[in-house]
Amino acid sequence: MSTMQDKRQALDTDYELLYHPDIPGRGEFIRLVFEAAGVRYADIANEDQANYELVQQTCSPESTGDADGNPPPFAPPALKIRGAGRDGKDLVISQTPNILLYLGSKLGLIGSADHHLYYANQLTLTALDLANETHDTHHPIAVMKYYEEQKDAALIRSADFRETRMPKFFSYFERNLKSNESEGRGKYLVSSKLTYADTTLWQVLDGLFYAYPKEMASRSKEFPLLFDTFYPAIKAETWLQDYMNSGRRLQYSDGLFRRYPELDRQ
Amino acid sequence: MSTMQDKRQALDTDYELLYHPDIPGRGEFIRLVFEAAGVRYADIANEDQANYELVQQTCSPESTGDADGNPPPFAPPALKIRGAGRDGKDLVISQTPNILLYLGSKLGLIGSADHHLYYANQLTLTALDLANETHDTHHPIAVMKYYEEQKDAALIRSADFRETRMPKFFSYFERNLKSNESEGRGKYLVSSKLTYADTTLWQVLDGLFYAYPKEMASRSKEFPLLFDTFYPAIKAETWLQDYMNSGRRLQYSDGLFRRYPELDRQ
Lengths: 266, 266
Known about the structure:
Two copies of one chain form a homodimer. The first copy, chain A, has eleven helices and four strands, in the order βαβααββαααααααα.
């Protein structure tokens, strides 16, 4: 249990995150952008479980949108931004990479030149693809069924994931760090400063260290810029250290990143 | 074989699409945006198979970027834009939704208000998620293995896809059309004009009609705005009719959308 005094009081914020309570999940990519920018946000279902009804209402499979003219989301996370919608009403947007694009642009986490936005965005999309493929290792057949019902397929899929997909993705990120080394010094993917691609990739790697500890212990030796420079350098940034010490950072459990030892390297 | 005189001569264009030849695949989402905007583009590997080497070079798993300072792509499609990169050099970007975001913004396919971009982008991301899930029905276990090696898992996954995922996605798009009905009249997802969300969703539906003809014949009765208004109305637009009659539109085969009758409704 986190102590209530550790929870950020966010009543004065323009931003409300609408997501499931208690898991980092896809909401964590969005939280990290706020934390990196030092901008207050309301994580409504974690601040008060009663608010989860509002999340479910907004993302209801019956909804045809809200009274402010916003269309319905497909699924959480969604983000409400005060006054940014039609005629100064609240704006509600959804889809993790779309929310990151919005916040990255508004909060200055997109590098320094115009075209850096598209570099940051493509890296973010690929990091989120890796997160989705991680999810699919424990749910290869049907997202609504239990892991135990699809364990045989999960064993085959996770072996393929560890042996072919992980190194393919890690090589891509390593080569991107290399491509930007003169500016980013192995620490930043785009330009010479933090972008939402860095925060997103960092979270995916951190989730993989939780889910696949043995595989990651071995793989991390193969990609030095990614694992000896990028991952620890982002982790050491003051904002991330402050966040991890704040009580706001949620523990991994049965979300996107799950630890099933039988799926890890044996 | 398509006749060469049908191929658009695109030597004078600022845009080069780098993608696999002969299949619509993910490249088709990008082609449709150019076709809708009436903007010339070079589809380099389809105009001359010899150019495919350039695509493979750009997306090589060894590349650490190009001489113009562009980072390496993860996989095709990529897009080269003349003069839009660092110091007026060529810009190379990748990831389908990132390329669509770029082109949608540059070519005026993002609606009429500032926040419409984020509505169009979230709908596009969800349509592409549906396309990815369609791909995963024939490759549920390992993307690099043959369909025949994962057919048992494909039968289970495609049943779940048809029974739970398709209606969930279709309901979402139907409710978005409903939410925007006063402006879009069931024909457009965002505002009162064509956006890249419309072209992308249309292509996913068209691919699904190819891959799952029986399931679609039945499902299409459940979502009237989507299938009686949106799909035929976009198909009837002059630019799309012209494109389909041009010889440039590629046939479906063994790409993202595949027709395996055993995976369809029985």
